[in-house]
């Protein structure tokens, strides 16, 4: 469904690239995880796919075809993003209805009230939320709105950048379960970036461990849960994960 081939991102001409030749492919309906310590380049991979990083090299392929260097409406109607901080990504002085209608307007699609209500329902929020402002919502409700805003254009792929890192643990589980249910119901394909192995283990079929802009190791979730990683850095990451116990089957 979506793939990157030899992706390189350089922010600084002299220094090491932030992403140094990353390749992977995600089948339709699957969730692929990118995991690694802060600064390893995982968010940059995701932002480069979304066209938010100027001047990357390598290919981004959607359904096997390269996407245009300047991402167009056709791309954003198929690929949407959800960021870590829903408070930062929502406009503080716009109603939820206005914010949900915006991506439809940007893509030249019809944004009637019924569509906004449907989007709210999809993420488990009452239509009455349409008149509220972001500060009147809890963190979890705000992230539900961010997911509704990504889904309102009916994309096929969601790029998820630490979608639950800013939330309390109990709310994290709710949002992860909602994302899983939506993926199953709609046949969505996810690329999930997280520093949290428990989140990756819960969500992903396959994952790649990144360090200093490169993929060190690819794993399927069974190997992650069994702890049979090959690269010493992956083993370190696993050992350091507070959630190590949760990753292993009881
Ligand atoms: N816009 C930018 N300009 C310059 N350097 C950047 C920019 N964005 C990221 N970087 C640098 O690129 C490297 C990779 O950052 P990136 O945010 O992709 O890492 P990450 O693994 O997602 O970490 P985190 O989870 O902390 O965001 C870091 O060294 C970072 O400082």
TrEMBL record:
It comes from the Bacteria. Pfam families: ABC_tran. The keyword Glycoprotein does not apply. The lineage of its organism: Bacteria, Pseudomonadati, Pseudomonadota, Alphaproteobacteria, Hyphomicrobiales. InterPro entries: AAA+_ATPase, ABC_transp_ATP-bind, ABC_transporter-like_ATP-bd, ABC_transporter-like_CS, P-loop_NTPase. The keyword NADP does not apply. This is ABC transporter ATP-binding protein. SMART domains: AAA. It comes from Alsobacter ponti. Keywords: ATP-binding, Nucleotide-binding, Transport. Residues 2-237 form the ABC transporter domain. Belongs to the ABC transporter superfamily. GO terms for molecular function: ATP binding.
């Amino acid at each position: 469904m979506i793939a990157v081939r030899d992706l390189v991102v350089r922010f600084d001409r002299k220094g090491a690239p932030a992403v140094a030749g990353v390749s992977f492919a995600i089948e339709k309906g699957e969730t692929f995880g990118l995991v690694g310590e802060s600064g390893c380049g995982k968010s940059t991979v995701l932002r480069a796919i979304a066209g938010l990083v100027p001047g990357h090299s390598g290919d981004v392929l959607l359904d096997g075809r390269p996407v245009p260097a300047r991402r167009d409406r056709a791309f954003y109607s198929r690929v949407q993003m959800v960021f870590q901080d829903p408070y930062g990504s929502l406009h503080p002085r716009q109603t939820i209805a206005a914010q949900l209608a915006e991506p439809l307007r940007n893509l030249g699609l019809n944004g009637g009230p019924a569509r906004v209500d449907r989007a709210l329902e999809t993420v488990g929020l009452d239509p009455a939320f349409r008149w509220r402002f972001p500060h009147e919502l809890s963190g979890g409700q705000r992230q539900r709105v961010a997911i509704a805003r990504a889904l309102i254009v009916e994309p096929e792929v969601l790029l998820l950048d630490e979608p639950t890192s800013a939330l309390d643990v109990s709310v994290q589980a709710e949002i992860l379960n909602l994302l899983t249910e939506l993926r199953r119901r709609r046949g969505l394909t996810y690329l999930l970036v997280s520093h949290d192995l428990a989140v990756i283990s819960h969500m992903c079929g396959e994952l790649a461990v990144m360090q200093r802009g490169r993929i060190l190791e690819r794993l399927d979730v069974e190997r992650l849960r069994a702890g049979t990683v090959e690269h010493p850095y992956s083993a370190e990451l696993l050992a350091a994960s507070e959630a190590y116990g949760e990753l292993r089957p009881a």
